[in-house]
Amino acid sequence: MAYGLLNGKRGIISGALNEQSIAWKVALKAKEEGASFVLTNAPIAMRMGEINRLAEQCSAEIIPADATSVEDLEKLFTQSQEVLGGKIDFVLHSIGMSPNIRKGRAYTDLNYEWFKQSLDVSAMSLHKMLQVAYKQDAIAEWGSVVALTYMAAQRTFPFYTDMAEAKAMLESITRSFGYHYGKFRKVRVNTVSQSPTVTTAGSGIGGFDKFYGFADKIAPLGNASADQCADYCLTLFSDFTRMVTMQNLFHDGGFVSTGVSQEVMESL
Ligand SMILES: NC(=O)c1ccc[n+]([C@@H]2O[C@H](COP(=O)([O-])OP(=O)(O)OC[C@H]3O[C@@H](n4cnc5c(N)ncnc54)[C@H](O)[C@@H]3O)[C@@H](O)[C@H]2O)c1
Questions:
Q1: Which of 37, 118, 131, 215 is 20 to 30 A from 77 in CA distance terms?
Q2: DSSP state string for 190-251
């Protein structure tokens, strides 16, 4: 059921790669809730072509942008305002990639060039987006920016390797830029820390299946799905959360606050 939560709002949604992507679900639900938006992803992801189907469904334009390129991001924000006819009300940063994880490098054997890429793609890209938007004054007053993160920023999960550092940096940028953008235009910036979710990025992590099951058994509500994550993101884009900023918000069924569950105790 739609509530018209985003009626009249203009947005930029990054990171929809395929139907499993969290950003894909956000786009479908944002459409249902009355938003108009632009879809963006790295040019290489465009070649896979699936995003065209989503764009048709949402009557959205696609503007390719490598989130590590300031030049691409400048075009993204300029063109989005032209296409949508005004300043941007919400931005979803749903971008993550670690060459070290992709190539199976252990945390004790990281390739440092790849480590830099992990940080650039997964964390510094949020700073780049925000700085470009700030300089162009592209986000409307009381706008909302949400980036997706994972709890490995606070607690160690050995298989998450250098993405743990990337997420810690992402969450720090959220606080630091949240201050400046809050002062400048009352724009809020938050991260949503999501449960393990079956997506291309999620499933690429070693031991994901077992860990998915473990997290599901620990969290009293079970793992949050991508659809539920999208619902939560929409509330953060809506006018009902105007005073929430610079926060890391756990969307994990209670995992982070649970030491151990009865199910896990019994399985030992
Ligand atoms: N899946 C999980 O278990 C989980 C849990 C917590 C947080 N997250 C986070 O959610 C976000 C979305 O991931 P997902 O799980 O939907 O997987 P996904 O693989 O569907 O999405 C990741 C996206 O990042 C994009 N991307 C990679 N490099 C890019 C670049 N240089 N420029 C622009 N885009 C680029 C990819 O094309 C892809 O669309 C990520 O930040 C991820 O870390 C995922």
A1: 118
A2: EEEEEPP--SHHHHTSTTHHHHHHHHHHHSTT-PPPHHHHHHHHHHHHSGGGTT--S-EEEE
Which tens digit of pLDDT belongs to each residue from 181-228? 999 999 999 999 999 999 988 888 878 889 999 999 999 999 999 999
CA of residue 124 to ligand 1 center, whole Å: 14
Q: Residue 22, exposed/middle/buried by CB under 10 A (0-12, 13-18, 19+)?
A: buried
Size of the chain, expressed as the number of residues it contains: 268
Is 68 near ligand 1, meaning CB less than 6 Å away?
yes
State pTM to two decimals: 0.98
Give the tokens for residue 89.
């009300």
- Is the distance from the beta carbon of residue 124 to the nearest atom of ligand 1 less than 6 Å? no
